[in-house]
Amino acid sequence: MIATKDDVLAALGKVSGPDGAPLPAAGKLSDIVVSDGKVFLSITVDAGAVREWEAVRENAQRAIAALPGVTSAMVALTAERAGGTTPRSQAAPPRPRGGGAPGGHAAASPAGVPGIGAIIAVASGKGGVGKSTTAVNLALALRELGLKVGILDADIYGPSMPKLLGIHERPQSAGGNRLRPIERYGMAVMSIGFLIEEETPMIWRGPMVISALTQMLREVEWGTLDVLVVDMPPGTGDAQLTMAQQVPLKGAVIVSTPQDLALIDARRGIAMFRRVNVPVIGIVENMSTFVCPHCGTRSDIFGHGGARREAERLGVPFLGEVPLDIAIREKSDAGSPVVSATADDPHAQYYRAIAARVRDGLAVSGRPAPKIVIEA
Ligand SMILES: Nc1ncnc2c1ncn2[C@@H]1O[C@H](COP(=O)(O)OP(=O)(O)OP(=O)(O)O)[C@@H](O)[C@H]1O
Ligand SMILES: [Mg+2]
């Protein structure tokens, strides 16, 4: 049995808005996308009314999910923006965070996620610099340090975790709207890629993204985690800025390649996080040095040391270098990242060193640190 748009609309007709009228009558619904049993839609509301609409969103999602033939339902709340500014929760008071630039925006901090000690973003200004590769290996290396780790692939433009971790199954429902994350290499994994087909395009771009992200954070049974690593979409545009604002981040790791152009973008990334008062834990230089797979000779294809110098200049910690090595790409492509439970790989050392610095960076960031196993 296949659910149609009309079925969805009929189900929504039984859900009341905050004023008691049927939801479709409010004129706030986006187009309804029904694809292969998955239903997506958004409700656009005034930024100040987000709170009262949250229950409506949940009811709508539940009503759709209960329809025969619907395998997953995602209803997103999007806040109407005025004058090109980013939507902000009106309810939560601003909470000071260390490491922000003086005069940065006093963003209202989103509430933390119960059970998760620290959420950190892995981000880059520029695409294709190795953010996802770094995120997954960093997460695995943090796990080796004794932390309980999850990874959330928030890259709505090109989710990578299903491929990087060789995941082919879909997350199961944990009852109600909640999903159980996939377990891989001892980590809890969630990816927007599990919920959408690669071809499901434009509807995710733009404001819906934010609500989808919020749902992946708050409607997934993460359990108790010390650290949740979030692989962010590339860029420093409006969507990324809003994400940085909406996720209760304890810090951000910026990935850059050494060349000037990437560094300019990395600088933008750092500025973005500072603007929303998220401390920058540090910079990673990826594809730092090329190691020839045949002769082992090192050459600096993109230059070398640029990110370290940039980190010094900007006064943020330098977390380490990862060489450009074909083995790192091959293992990633094969769904078995170099730092994985099954591989004792010489390349894992780079990520282990970075993970130790990230752990230490979290411990000194001035807020309660996650449960940390401190090595002598
Ligand atoms: N240190 C490395 N050595 C060799 N290959 C690498 C390294 N880091 C990343 N790669 C490869 O470079 C490509 C891009 O990496 P990745 O997908 O991690 O980048 P990204 O910044 O997440 O990209 P996007 O912006 O598209 O999300 C991949 O094929 C990956 O395997
Ligand atoms: Mg990526």
Structural class: alpha/beta
Distance between the termini: 60 Å
The number of E-state strands comes to 12
Any idea what the radius of gyration is? 21 Å
What order do the SSEs take from the amino end to the carboxyl end, as H and E? HEEHEEHEHEEHHEHEHEEHEHH
Largest sheet descriptor:
9 strands, mixed
Compose a concise summary of this entry:
The protein is an alpha/beta fold and 376 residues long.
Structure, explained:
Strands 4, 5, 6, 7, 8, 9, 10, 11 and 12 form a nine-stranded mixed beta sheet that branches. A three-stranded mixed beta sheet has the order 1-2-3. It contains eleven helices and twelve strands. The protein has helices at 5-12, 50-65, 131-144, 161-164, 192-195, 208-218, 238-246, 260-275, 306-314, 326-333, 348-363, and strands at 33-35, 38-46, 72-80, 116-123, 149-153, 182-184, 187-191, 225-231, 251-256, 280-291, 298-299, 318-324. Helix 3 (131-144) crosses helix 11 and helix 6 (208-218) runs parallel beside helix 7. The chain has 376 residues and is α/β, with parallel strands linked by helices. The model is unreliable at 81-107 and 366-376 (pLDDT under 50). The protein binds adenosine-5'-triphosphate and magnesium ion. Adenosine-5'-triphosphate (ATP) binds next to helix 3, strand 10, strand 12 and helix 10. The site of magnesium ion has 6 residues, from helix 3.
